[in-house]
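Continuing from the previous page...

OK, I double-checked the sequence for TetR family transcriptional regulator against my notes and this is the correct one:
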Amino acid sequence: MAGDLPGGPSDAAEPDGFPRRRGPGRPAGRRSGAADTRRLILDAARSEFARAGYAGTSVRGIARTAGVDPALVHHYFGPKESVFVAALDLPFDPDSLVPDVLAGGPDEMGERLARYFFALWEDPEIQPRLLALLRTVLSGDAAAGVISDFMTTELVRRLARELDAPDALLRANLCGAQLMGLAFTRYVLCMEPVASTDVDTLVASVGPTLQRYLCGD
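Thanks. Re-ran it with the corrected sequence; updated structure tokens here:
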């Protein structure tokens, strides 16, 4: 289901499972500076992530495929995780997600994680992209493994590194499983009463479970 990847209907699906962006009015055989350089790098990034997976891709490899200096990739996008976020037009950035969840210390961390989760999913502009992302992960197509690898590396493991608790990686994974299951139930299957329950009630219900995963004995 490559066409379900975030990015919108203007993205043409390529055989590697990633959308290829088409710049408006781009003359054939010409580059028009920064905008075309960015597109060139993003095209190369999608190709490299599809070929080598998230863990096997490097900024240097993306630059080599794009025919540019690695410093230019860093200039436009930053580190690898930021290139990935831009290449797939992901609706969240781990650089802000994890610090926001951790802000304020361990107390009520589970509630903050739940509220962050629902703030994304309930946003009418972001929800379609999250649905596309979730369906892609569930589909098992060429892009699913890369997205899963990214989430494991940049979200779950990053959160685990910040937890002052035994079995931190398992705890972070359990949070991810809980939230992915909730997203599937509420937004894909639309199962009642979860689908129509107000967010505050859901946060009050799932927050303590997440808190136990993150900080409990």
